[in-house]
Write a structure and sequence with these properties.
Rossmann fold; two-stranded antiparallel sheet; disordered C terminus
Length: about 300
């Protein structure tokens, strides 16, 4: 029997036994509804009211070249064990303990949540961005944490170049009012536990914007939106600009990178004076030469 003959037979059956729909709320029979004719043109068409919806990708997503990072001697989430990876396992542990104590909300002053960590240095070129990225990548391997890496060095943003990604809008676009929501500047990556916020456009009043109440509101939202999130800020050097000093006012922990055989004691002391009153200041000794008997991974 053909499709048309089947349809005609079905229509005749419907006419003889009209369907009745019951209104569940009133318990009364509702109006009779005519039967729907089969779609003769497309027997495999989807039922009425159902549409095919493709999965929606994240609003902003980038692919970090993890193989390239590994070749550069950096920590990667799916990489093999290395001396650098082991070093940052040691470095992150006390930072995570402080962020988790006495509860996942962080220790210390509520205005300075301990899961906000600023990585800075006394002078440019001491390796603070390298350390910030490695710290973030190492924390991203944790089972109980996610990490957000923020490029707060507006004058010399280095994270996009180091990760091999493009930078468009970022933190400064929120502070300037060009973007209203953090979701507009949040960048997801192919490392599931790692997200980014780039610096955004430069501004001549960067220090004032970082010291503003809008900045305080933004970092508070970043700190408290997810209880398992660690937020790492790659900050400008302390002796090169005033921006790092005002950024430090919002932080719960500060890591000062000290370059071996370069940073003088007086420079470090001056840099630390800019952090007076800041809780939980730690030093990270960087670019130290390894003994010849150790496995060589270069400087880090």
């Amino acid at each position: 029997m053909s499709i048309i003959e089947n349809a005609a037979r079905r229509l005749e059956q419907v006419k003889q036994s009209p369907s009745v729909r019951t209104d569940a709320r009133a318990g009364e029979p509702a109006k009779q509804t005519p039967a729907r004719l089969p779609n003769l043109a497309n027997a495999n068409a989807q039922p009425a009211g159902q549409t095919s919806v493709a999965p929606t990708p994240p609003k902003h997503h980038v692919e970090i070249d993890l193989e390239r990072l590994q070749q550069m001697g950096m920590v990667v989430s799916n990489g093999e064990r290395s001396a650098v990876a082991e070093e940052f396992r040691v470095i992150k542990r006390p930072l995570l303990r402080t962020a988790a104590a006495p509860s996942r909300g962080g220790a210390g002053n509520p205005r300075n949540p301990a899961n906000l960590i600023m990585v800075t240095s006394s002078l440019p070129g001491e390796g603070k961005t390298f350390c910030a990225i490695n710290l973030a990548m190492s924390i991203a391997t944790e089972k109980d944490y996610t990490v957000l890496l923020v490029d707060a060095d507006v004058a010399r943003p280095s994270i996009p170049k180091a990760l091999g990604i493009s930078a468009e809008i970022g933190m400064m676009d929120i502070l300037c009012g060009d973007r209203k929501d953090i979701a507009d500047v949040l960048v997801h990556t192919n490392v599931p536990s790692l997200s980014l916020i780039t610096a955004g456009k430069g501004h001549r009043y960067t220090t004032e914007l970082l010291a503003s109440q809008d900045m305080a509101t933004m970092v508070a939202e970043l700190a408290r939106r997810y209880p398992d999130r660690i937020v790492i800020f790659d900050s400008p050097p302390l002796l090169a600009t005033t921006e790092a000093q005002v950024l430090a006012m919002h932080m719960g922990q500060i890591v000062v990178v000290v370059e071996a055989e370069r940073t003088t004691q007086s420079q470090l002391q001056e840099a630390l004076r800019h952090l007076d009153g800041c809780p939980n200041v730690s030093l990270l000794y960087n670019k130290a030469r390894r003994f010849s008997t150790e496995t060589a991974y270069g400087y880090y």
